[in-house]
User: Fold Receptor-like serine/threonine-protein kinase from Oryza sativa subsp. indica.
Amino acid sequence: MRRKAAGDVALVGGCCLLLLLLPLLSHGADMPLGSSLSPANQALWSSPNNTFSLSFTASPTSPSLFVAAITYAGGVPVWTAGNGATVDSGGALRLSSSGDLQLVNGSGAVVWSSNTGGQGVTTAALQESGNLLLRNSSATLWQSFEHPTDTVVMGQNFTSGMNLTSASYQFSLDRNTGNLTLKWTGGGTVTYFNKGYNTTFTANKTLSSPTLAMQTNGIVSLTDGSLTSPVVVAYSSNYGESGDMLRFVRLDTDGNFRAYSAARGSNAPTEQWSAVADQCQVFGYCGNMGVCGYNGTSPVCRCPSENFQLSNPADPRGGCRRKIELQNCPGNSTMLQLDNTQFLTYPPEITTEQFFVGITACRLNCLSGSSCVASTALSDGSGLCFLKVSNFVSGYQSAALPSTSFVKVCFPGIPNPPLGGGGSPSGRASGVRGWVVAVVVLGAVSGLVLCEWALWWVFCRHSPKYGAASAQYALLEYASGAPVQFSYRELQRSTKGFKEKLGAGGFGAVYRGVLANRTVVAVKQLEGIEQGEKQFRMEVATISSTHHLNLVRLIGFCSEGRHRLLVYEFMKNGSLDAFLFGDAPGGRMPWPTRFAVAVGTARGITYLHEECRDCIVHCDIKPENILLDEHHNAKVSDFGLAKLVNPKDHRHRTLTSVRGTRGYLAPEWLANLPITAKSDVYSYGMVLLELVSGHRNFDVSEETGRKKYSVWAYEEYEKGNIAAIVDKKLPGEDIDMVQVERALQVSFWCIQEQPAQRPSMGKVVQMLEGIMDLERPPPPKSSDSFLSLTSATTATGVSGSGSTSMVSTFTSSAAPPAPTPSPNVDEVQQEMAVGRSASARIRDRASRSLLGQEPYMTM
Ligand SMILES: *[C@@H]1O[C@H](CO)[C@@H](O)[C@H](O)[C@H]1NC(C)=O
Ligand SMILES: *[C@@H]1O[C@H](CO)[C@@H](O)[C@H](O)[C@H]1NC(C)=O
Ligand SMILES: *[C@@H]1O[C@H](CO)[C@@H](O)[C@H](O)[C@H]1NC(C)=O
Ligand SMILES: *[C@@H]1O[C@H](CO)[C@@H](O)[C@H](O)[C@H]1NC(C)=O
Ligand SMILES: *[C@@H]1O[C@H](CO)[C@@H](O)[C@H](O)[C@H]1NC(C)=O
Ligand SMILES: *[C@@H]1O[C@H](CO)[C@@H](O)[C@H](O)[C@H]1NC(C)=O
Ligand SMILES: *[C@@H]1O[C@H](CO)[C@@H](O)[C@H](O)[C@H]1NC(C)=O
Ligand SMILES: *[C@@H]1O[C@H](CO)[C@@H](O)[C@H](O)[C@H]1NC(C)=O
Ligand SMILES: *[C@@H]1O[C@H](CO)[C@@H](O)[C@H](O)[C@H]1NC(C)=O
Ligand SMILES: *[C@@H]1O[C@H](CO)[C@@H](O)[C@H](O)[C@H]1NC(C)=O
Assistant:
């Protein structure tokens, strides 16, 4: 009767008084028979400490309708009378004189009842846990915890036999296994989620009464009389965090089962776990004929094709319908192909519509079957094809799905435009739109160009400052990291008319220059370029987009008429060969520096091979192409150049380039096998050996018993005579023999005859740094001749093209300076002969690559 009093006082006293009195008056007291709540009197029944309250709240779907809900402080609903049943403003929730709790309509119709009439119920009470009890003086006869709707809160036991329902979805526990089961029940039943947690634990057990609960610490657990301890279903992401909050699990209207937590006073719970990780796997999420996909992170619903439209444009999840029904097709019907798409099937609702056929048959079987509306060829190795004959079809599209699906539509099938805009390949309307856009854009661009030209004409034409301004502009560009375009005259000026020659590489001479901002640069005058302007710029863009500490940086370029020049950062200490073999003061380059150069070079090549966007095989690793800055940091140069040079042009060939390149070429060059990143590894291995020994790898002398140095070095290594290999010029005290041995081992692994036996450059770095263990390398040259193996090993990895300097090596009439005859020299000459005959083929490959037929290798 106190509730009635409260209502009366509220009516008389107005809302302020009401707010003051209500908590007092509803203070956890038991509700006697005859008590009632209604949307009109805004009364509520609350738990002793006001943690939960039962009252009418506006329906989430329609504000003029109401649901009777138990809500947590703040407004999160945890139970509703009749699972979301709505009444109008004249409705009520009342405890009848017979002890039945009833939700009635304004018209007096009973919408929902607890069915406890005549069982002796005397009071109703809402507990601090959120449980609503109907009881007599000694026993509980009904409780809301045993009749859950869509939510299970802390302290509530959800057992098998109970259901959570929400929209067209149902959640339950399998009685025998305790599996968590999610079903779609919107016309037929489809189980789309059925998972046992910790199967090892429950494998052979038949459970008696599995129970799911949300523990106060955030663990969702499964208990059963036959289990000694609870099985963890999931840890909430905020597991273990304490505070005044409610934790609960809920079956949401989107068919997912989630764990939440909500702070007291907040009406926005935070998701802590969801059972179905991929929302698109929820059957029917996008309605009938809807296709679920992702726009980045959120699931979005679309129709299968332009032959469909949303049933309710305001609700993408409401499904799609055909613009023309199949039976009304003006002509034929056809099967429209949807790539990376599946019509969900777990297992198929109708198992008789499951076949083992290929994609084409999967399409045709559905086309000829009059009741079939769609089909899916799983293409996941199972060979399965599903025909969808049911009246509800749920689609799932993801780039990761191998499946191909077909949907039956009236001819012609009009595919969806690609997500993210762009012109659609079909559809006249969008085609016309595309034209309009193109014309507008063209107009705008040419307008802008005209404007700029006019401005230049007015202001700059006669201005003497124009040249200076352009140089400044160029410097700005340089600062931004993009390659700067220089004019030929600018470069002529900065190199004082190409006076100070730094060297002559395989691609042309290099000159020292000083830019307007006093940056010292190396200007490379490329020779033998017959490439078009556009392709040259593309190559320049590729080269300049590779930035690495151990790669020489391209600052800019010049492309004017015949002139093609590249501007690089200047390396104060020149190239490595001068230090190792030459008369540079670097004969005394100490071991720590040599080792750092070895690691740095390996890092630079690793970047070219593995880490930059377009992989680059260098094809010409040799000491001449390893430059040293003022701190003796190694910088690899000349990468990406081979592609720039016309292979038919022989002018740039010099004796030095022949000598420099010969010993570093991997054997596969001679055998017409694919050139891969592993060819660079071979060349690197030779350089590494030279760093240790200070000898050219192909040197032949009395000291090495008339053997090639690399062959002799391996023999000495085999004998354990490492000291004999180490460069005599090295100052003895700072040699780290552990590093030396490691470097030698890596080197011998790198120069293995079989490309597959060589490590990747990434591994080389790890081996050198000692991160990776090293096995003892086998002899580089296998017992059978390499050439005899060539037919067995065909294309492995990316095949590539030949470096021009390599081509020149074997087509040049100039023979290398011949050492005194010996068996080993014969061998070298034999190689040269093979090379000569192979050169034409290699050149073929080089030009093939230049034509862009091997898009993944830019050289
Ligand atoms: C209600 O709150 C008081 C004071 O905070 C506390 O002592 C009491 O145990 C609480 N009652 C229940 C049922 O939680
Ligand atoms: C509730 O009453 C309204 C009119 O008073 C009626 O339109 C509606 O159908 C009723 N709902 C139920 C479930 O009886
Ligand atoms: C309360 O209900 C229980 C179960 O129906 C019954 O056994 C018990 O006698 C009832 N107590 C009273 C006082 O009526
Ligand atoms: C839930 O189950 C546990 C263990 O079986 C039991 O102690 C507890 O009383 C149950 N809670 C409710 C509200 O029934
Ligand atoms: C739960 O749903 C199943 C069908 O899915 C039904 O047979 C069962 O009676 C339901 N249980 C409850 C307690 O409503
Ligand atoms: C229970 O789930 C596991 C996968 O977690 C599944 O292999 C098993 O078939 C399920 N059991 C039942 C009875 O559905
Ligand atoms: C399964 O439960 C057993 C026993 O509690 C436990 O040792 C094991 O680690 C659990 N396995 C998983 C995958 O949770
Ligand atoms: C589970 O059942 C299988 C076959 O029924 C049996 O071979 C195995 O030993 C059982 N494992 C346990 C742990 O009972
Ligand atoms: C993806 O869709 C959601 C819901 O429609 C929208 O809120 C979000 O902005 C979309 N994201 C992108 C990247 O388009
Ligand atoms: C219908 O399709 C069949 C098979 O593709 C074709 O042979 C036939 O000409 C089509 N008929 C019409 C009216 O388009």
Q: What stands out?
A: Residues 428-459 form the longest helix (32 residues). The chain has 18 helices and 43 strands. The chain has a mean pLDDT of 78. The first strand starts at residue 31 and ends at 32.
